[in-house]
Write a structure and sequence with these properties.
Elements: H1 3-8, E1 10-14, E2 21-25, E3 34-37, E4 53-56, H2 67-79
Antiparallel strand pairs: 1-2, 3-4
Length: 97
């Protein structure tokens, strides 16, 4: 998924054993986050029930970033100064990427 989709939320198509389905991704979704699609997994051999399917989000950056995109990302970084590494040992709270 793209950075805007993960930040703003989106409806995306994901493959299931029965074919593609639409899944809602909430705003603020992080890469590696997992979601469960209830009753969308493999049918059980023991009865008339189905398992769940899990979807793991992977955020993908574009391979080539234009100058305009760089400008927008720099502005985004200025407006959102959070440091995701601030809680790691040996990392200064005001460190920048």
């Amino acid at each position: 998924m793209t950075v805007p989709e993960s930040a703003l939320g989106a409806k995306i198509e994901v493959p299931t054993v029965d074919g593609p389905t639409i899944m809602r991704i909430p705003p603020g979704t992080q890469s590696g986050q997992k979601f469960r699609l209830r009753d969308r997994g493999v049918p059980s051999l023991r009865g008339n029930v189905r398992g769940d399917q899990f979807v793991e989000v992977r955020i993908v950056l574009p391979p080539v970033i234009s100058e305009e995109t760089k400008r927008v990302l720099a502005e985004f970084a200025r407006l959102n100064p959070e440091n995701p590494r601030a809680s790691l040992p040996g990392t200064e709270p005001s460190g920048s990427a």
